Amino acid sequence: MTDINTITGNAASPSPARRGALQNPATVAMYAFMAVVAVLVLVGAFTTQGFLTTGNFRSILTATAFVGIMAVGSTVIMLGGSLFSVSLGMTTAVTSILFMYTLRFGLVPAVVVTLLAGTLIFTIQGAVIGSIGANPIIVTIGAGAIQEGIIGWLSPGDIVPPAGANIDFLAQPILGLPPSVYVFLAVAIVADLCMRHTRSGLEIYMLGENQPAARAAGLPVAKLTTAAFAVAGLCVAIAGILIAGFARNVNLQVQGTYTFDVIAAILVGGTAVTGGRGSVGRTVIGALIIATITDMLLLQGASTGMQILVKGLIVIVVVVLLHLARHEGRMS
Amino acid sequence: MPLAVEVRGVTKAFGPIVALDEVSFALRSGEIHALVGHNGAGKSTLVKVLAGVVSPDRGEVMVGGKPMVLRSPRQAQAAGIAVVEQELSLVPSLTVLDNILLGRVDAGAHSRGAFLDRIRGLLSQLGLSNVRLGTVVEDLSMAERQLVEIARALSRDARILILDEPTATLGEREIERVFAGVRKLVAEGRSVIFVSHRLGEVLALCSQVTVLRDGRMIASRPAAELSRDSIVKLMLGEVSEKSDVRVRDGGVREGLVVIDGLSVPGQVEDFALRANGGEIVAIAGQVGSGASEVLRALGGLIPDARGRVTIAGRPMRLGAPQRSIRGGAVFASNDRKGEGLFLHQSVARNLLATRLKAVSRGGFVSRREFTALAQRLAGLIGFDRKRLGAAAETLSGGNQQKVFLGRCIEQQAAVLLLFDEPTRGVDVGGRADIHNLVRHAASTGACIIFVSSELDEILDLADTVVTMFSGRITRIGRRREMTAAGILAEITSGTATATVA
Amino acid sequence: MSVHEASAAKRRTPVSRRVQMVMPSVLLAAMLVTFLVLPQFSNREPSIFNVYNAFQLWAAYGLVALGVGLTMIAREFDFGVLGVFAFCPMIAVKLGEYDTLLGFVVAIAVAAAVGFLQGFLVARLRLHSMPVTLGFYIALLGATITISNSQSVSFSNLDLGFALDADMFEILSWRSIIAIAVFALVFLVMRYTPLGRDIRAIGGDRRASRMVGVEVDRVLIIVFMTSAVCSALGGVLLAYSFATALSDPGLTPLKFAVTAAILGGVSLVGGIGSVVGIAIGALTLSLLQELFSILAAPTYVSSLVTGALLVLATIVAAPGLAARYKSFRSPRAGSTGAVAAPSRRLPDTSQ
C-alpha cells in the first residue's frame, strides 16, 4: 500500500481546469490594461496643461507620421513571418542622404532614385532571407553595417540641400498639418487595402502564419518574402525623403531611434511577432498610442529617457498580455 | 515464471470512443512479448498506460506482483518501465554520451570512469561497440539511433522495455542488429514488449503474441502456435470481404500519370506506377514503408528525390512544390495542422489558398468571385456556408480535413491529387464525406493517389492498390484482386517475403 | 541490401560539420596572419601593444558575445544584453561614487534580476524571446538615459580603471584576465556539467529534451540570467576602465556580439556552437578592429568588412541553402534518358 501512496503522492495534474480558469484572467487583464491606459490618457488629457488643444493633436499626428509610415511597411514583413529589420534606421538615413544628394539633379530624379534605392536595399535582403531561409535579424544587422560602410566611404559629412533646390514644400503645412501626416494616412490606407484585398497580401498572411503549409501549398515563399521587404523598403524611402525635407541637414545621425520605435509601434499594435496575425490598421493604432503617451509625458515635463522607458514598458506589457489572451483563447 | 507486468481489466475511453475495453495482458520475466493489432486496435493506448502517460478509467496494473498507479512517465520509470517511442527522443546535435545522460537526475553522482565503462558495456552489448561516446547522434544511422535510445533506457535500470515499432525505419541488417541486442537483454532476465506491424519479425523474435482488435484483447498465444496468416485473421476478425466492389475500369485519360524510377535516398527505391485519369490509386504501407515519402516526393517536398514523372504527357521536375503544382500535381499532407491549414485564417481563405489567382483581376481579389467560389467549394465538401468566415481553428477535426482537401479539388490544372492519410483524425460521418469528395474529384477526370493505413478505406475507395514494404513496391493490383488479408499480409510481410514483387 | 542501409553505411563526420567546426579557428589563424603581414605593406608594424588593445576590446564586447551566444545556443535571442550593457555600468558608476563595491554588486544583481525576469517570461509563458527582450532593451535604455540625464557620467575612482588596465604579461590586463576567467567558467559548465548539456539540448530539440525530463524552464531562466550578467560585467568593467558610463552605448555591442557568435560557429538553428568558438570569434573580430586602427583605416572599412563577413556567414549557414542546392540539382525531366519509359516491373493496369 505504501507503494501506491508514494507513487500517487503528488499526482495532481488539473491542467484542463487551470486552463479554463486562466482564460478569463488573461483576457480580463488585457481589457483591464486597455482600460487603465484609456483612463490614464483621459485623466492625463484633463490634467495636462495643453494636451486638449488642436495644436497638440497636430503635434501628436506629426510625431507619429515618420515612424508610422515605416511601421506600416515593416508590418508587412512581420505579417509575412520574417520578423523585422534591425537596420531600418540605417536605411532611413541612407535614403534621406541620397535624396538630399541627388536633389542637385532635380526633384523628380531625386525622388525616383531614392524610392528605387530604398526599395532595392530592402529587396536584396528580402531575397536572401526568402530564398534560403537565412535569419532576418542577422542578415539585416549585416546589411546595416554594409550600408553604414558605404555611406561612410562616400560622404564624410553633413549634406545640406543644394543651392536652388526648393524642398520647403516637404515640411510646409497643408491645412495645418505637415505633408508627412497625409502621406502617412495615404500609405496606411493603401497598404491596408493591399494586405486585405490583393492576392499577394492574402498570401503573405498565409506565409507568415504557417510557412511549412505555405511551402507545401506551393505558394511562392521566396517571392512573397522579397515582396514584403520591397514594400517596407519603399516605405522607408518615402519616410527618408520626408525626413530629409524636415531636417534640412542630414547625416547618419538622422536614424535616431527609428529602428526600435518602428518595431515598438508594430508590437504595441498587436501584430504577432511570429507572423500571420495582426494588421496595418493595428500598427497605425500602435503608433498613435505610443505618440500620445510620449506627448503627454513630454507635456508633463518628463525627460527623453523617461519617455523611452515608458515605451519599453508598454511593449513588454502589451506583448505579454496579448500573448496570454491569444494563447488561452486557443486552448479553450 | 513470475510475471513482470500484469494488466487486469483495463478500460479507457476518450469521449465516446472506447480505446481499451477490459483488456488484460501478462508479461513474463525474460520474455519478448509481441503486441499486435491493426490501426485503432488500442496498442498505443495500452503502451501509454504502461508508460504512465494515460491513466486508465478502470482496471489495475501490477508490476513485479505489486499493484501500481502510474500517473506520470517519471513514476513509470521508477517502476522500471521504459518506453522507446517510435518517434525518437534523441537530440541530434548532441553526442551519444550526452544523450544517454540527458535528463538524468543523478548524472553527476557517478564515478565517471566506472559509469562510462558501464555505458560502453551497454553499447557493445547492443552491438554498438564501434560507436564512440563522443559521436554526434546526427551522424548515426537510424538503427544506431534506435539502439542508443534503447541503451539510454537500459542505463536507467529499466527491467521492462517497451519497443514501439522499433524497426519501422530500419533496413534488414539493421533490424538484425536491434534483434540481437534485444535477445541479449532478455537473456539477462529483462522483459520486452515488442509493438510491431511486421508479422515476420514478430514471429522471428517473440515468444508470445497478444492480439488486440477494437480495444479488446482477442488472443494471447505462444508464437510457436501461430503463423502469419493466423495472426492476420485474428487482427481482422470475421470480416466478410466486401463483394459490392465498385470498379470503374478504363478511366477518362489513359496513362495520365506515369511515374518511373522514383527514389528517395534511404526511403524509397525505384517506385514505378502508371495511372489513368479518373483512377483512384491507394498506396498501402506501414510507417517506414516509404508510401508517404512517395507522395511527398511527387508533391515536390523532398529536395533530393529523383525519378521520371510525366503528367498528361508533360515531364514534371521534382524537388520543389511549385514545380509540382505547375506540372499539375497537388499534395495534401498528413499533418493538416503543421503543414496544411492556416488555422487563424478564415475557412474561405483556406479553401482558396492555392487558387487566389483564379478570383483575382490585376492582382486584386474580386470579393464577389471569391465568395462565389468559396460557396461553391463549401457546397462540394458539404460544409456550412454560413461558417465560411470562421477561423479554421474553430472547426472540428473532420471539418478541418474537409476544408484542407477541398482546397485541392476542382482546379482545372490539377490533374494529380496526392492525399496522405486523407481521413486521419476524422470521425465516421466526416470520413464518408471525405470519401465522396475523393470520388467526386476522380469523376472530374483527375487521377488520385492516396496513402492510407486503414484497410477499410483502401478497399472502399481504391481502383488500384499498391502495397509497399521497406521502401519498395511489393505488389500492384486491381481492387477486385485484393482482399484485406492479402493487403495486410503484403504490408506486414517482414523479411521473409520482402522480395516478392 | 535494403534501401535504408545505403544511407546508413557512411560513418564519418559529414564534411559540412567538420568545416563548421574548424571554421572559427581557420578564420582566427587567417586573421592573425593578416594582422601580422598586412601592416608591413603600409610600413606599419603591429606592436605588442596592439595585441593588448585587441584583448581590451575583447574583454568588453566578448562578454556580450558570450551572453548572446549562449542564448543563441539555447535557440533564443537576447536583445536585453544591450539594455544591461547600458544600465548596469550607469548604476555601478553612480552608486560607485559612494562605494565602489556596492555599485558593482548592485549592478550585477540588477543584471541577474533582469535576466531572471526575461527568462521567466520566455520560459513560463512560452513567449517569443525577441519582442520581450526588445521591450527590456528599450525600457533599460530609457532608464539609463533618465538616471544619467542624457549625459555621460564620469567616475571619480580613476585608480580602479588604471589598476584594471595595467598590463599583465604584456598583452593582458586584469580586465581581460577577468573576462578570460568568465569564459573559462562558462566553458567548464557547458562542457562538464549536466546544465551545459541541458542548454545545448533545449537548443537542439526542445520537445525531446522535455520528454526525457530536462527542466526546460529552469534551464532557460539560467541562460538568460547568465547572458545578462556576462553582458553587464563587460559593460561595468569597460566603464571602470574609461572612468565613464555612457548614457547610450548604441547598437555596437550587439552587432559585435552577434557577428562574433556567428563567426565563432554558433547557429541560430539552435544547439550548435561552443564557448571556445564564441571566444575565438570575438577575438577574430577584436583583432580585425585593431588591424584597422593600425592601418589608420577609416571606420567605414571596418563596417563594410564586418557587414560582409556577417552576411556571408549567415548565407553559408542558412538552413534552406542545402535544400535549394539539392532541388536545383534535380534533373530536368526528360534530360536523363527517355521520358517515362515504363520499367520492366511496371504492371500495366490499364489492360
Mean pLDDT of chain C: 85
Strand content of chain B: 25-35%
- Kindly name the structural category of chain C: mainly alpha
What is the count of helical runs of chain B?
17
Largest sheet features of chain B = 6 strands, mixed
Largest sheet of chain C: 2 strands, antiparallel
Q: Give the helix/strand class of chain B.
A: alpha/beta
Mean pLDDT value of chain B: 85
What report would you give on this structure?
- The complex is a heterotrimer of chains A (332), B (501) and C (351).
- Chain A is mainly α and 332 residues long.
- Chain A starts with a helix and ends with a helix.
- In chain A, 75% of the residues lie in helices and 0% in strands.
- The longest helix of chain A has 33 residues, at 15-47.
- Chain B has a 6-stranded mixed β-sheet, with helices on both faces. In chain B, strands 16-19-20-13-21-22 form a 6-stranded mixed β-sheet, with helices on both faces. In chain B, strands 2-1-4-5 form a 4-stranded antiparallel β-sheet, with helices on one face.
- In chain B, α4 (112-125) packs across α5 (142-155) and α14 (397-406) packs parallel to α15.
- Chain C has 15 helices and 4 strands.
- In chain C, the strands form 2 sheets. Chain C has a two-stranded antiparallel sheet. In chain C, strands 2-3 form a two-stranded antiparallel sheet.
- In chain C, α4 (80-96) packs parallel to α6, α5 (100-124) runs antiparallel to α11 (216-242) and α13 (275-294) packs antiparallel against α14.
- Chain C is globular and about 70 Å long.
- Classes of the chains: A mainly alpha (332), B alpha/beta (501), C mainly alpha (351).
Any descriptors?
A: mainly alpha; globular; B: 501 residues; alpha/beta; 22 strands
Describe the secondary structure blueprint for this structure.
The complex is a heterotrimer of chains A (332), B (501) and C (351).
Chain A: H1 2-8, H2 15-47, H3 54-79, H4 88-102, H5 107-132, H6 136-154, H7 179-197, H8 199-209, H9 211-216, H10 221-247, H11 258-269, H12 280-299, H13 304-331
Helix pairs in contact in A: 2-13, 3-7, 3-10, 3-11, 3-12, 4-5, 4-6, 4-10, 5-6, 5-10, 7-8, 8-10, 11-12, 11-13, 12-13
Chain B: E1 3-14, E2 17-28, E3 32-36, H1 43-51, E4 58-63, E5 66-68, H2 73-78, E6 81-84, H3 96-101, H4 112-125, H5 142-155, E7 160-164, H6 172-187, E8 191-195, H7 199-205, E9 208-213, E10 216-222, H8 228-236, E11 257-264, E12 268-275, E13 280-284, H9 291-298, E14 306-311, E15 314-316, H10 321-327, E16 329-332, H11 336-339, H12 347-351, E17 360-361, E18 364-365, H13 367-381, H14 397-406, E19 416-420, H15 428-443, E20 447-452, H16 455-461, E21 464-469, E22 472-478, H17 484-491
Parallel strand pairs in B: 3-8, 3-9, 6-7, 7-8, 13-20, 13-21, 16-19, 19-20
Antiparallel strand pairs in B: 1-2, 1-4, 4-5, 9-10, 11-12, 11-14, 14-15, 17-18, 21-22
Chain C: H1 3-8, H2 15-41, H3 48-73, H4 80-96, H5 100-124, H6 129-148, E1 153-154, H7 158-165, E2 167-168, E3 172-173, H8 174-192, H9 194-204, H10 206-211, H11 216-242, E4 244-245, H12 252-263, H13 275-294, H14 299-317, H15 319-329
Antiparallel strand pairs in C: 1-4, 2-3
